[in-house]
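In this supplementary section we document a worked example of the pipeline. Step one takes a protein sequence of length 225 as its only input; no multiple sequence alignment statistics are reported here. Step two produces a three-dimensional model, which step three serialises into structure tokens for compact storage. The input and output of this example are shown verbatim.
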Amino acid sequence: MKKSSSIIWGIVLVAVGVVFALNAFNVTDINVFFDGWWTLFIIVPCAVGLFTEREKTGNIIGIAVGVFLLLCCQDILSFSTLWKLLVPAVIVIVGLKMVFNGVFGNKATEIMKKMKLDGKEPKTGCAIFSGCELKYDNEVFEGAELTAVFGGVECDLRNAIIEKDCVIQVTAIFGGIDIFVPGNVNVKVSSNSIFGGISNKTSVHKSAPTIYVNGTCMFGGVDIK
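The serialised model returned by step three reads:
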């Protein structure tokens, strides 16, 4: 993923440099600093994220926000109309994601349901206007539920024993969750995010157990390291 991101950003920078050069030699007359040019700092990173990040919902919402702001700066839409369109657009995007997960299934939900049917309860970490730390040292890990509301949760699995696929349900609302995983597992993310998201900085390993992270983020974030 990092390699793809580097390539795409390289292409973007080359394109910008070429435009500046052509303008300098009067070959082209492209107005780089058009009305609302600053919205590109929202649109471009989110567009790159669609190709380089595993979770797409946050990037789609970011692109929608950037495009609506650009249209307002171009006087195509008014800022009063912006909020009337933006909020429904975000709700529709999140709703479609939830429908997609419901129709095509969600591995994290399936594992959690099976775990509870087997009489096993996931460990919980909850921080509301506070902090919470969970650490698994030489302990078998099968699943957890982490919630941060105006607070922070740290879950350390680096010394945990992970023998099979497991799941972590996360909810971050105006809060943050840090998850540290061992280097011999895969991590797959599925989230519904509004002005927040899940960052997965782990690598892919063949024939290794998978930790499925299923989450909801509203003005909050989850970092998986």
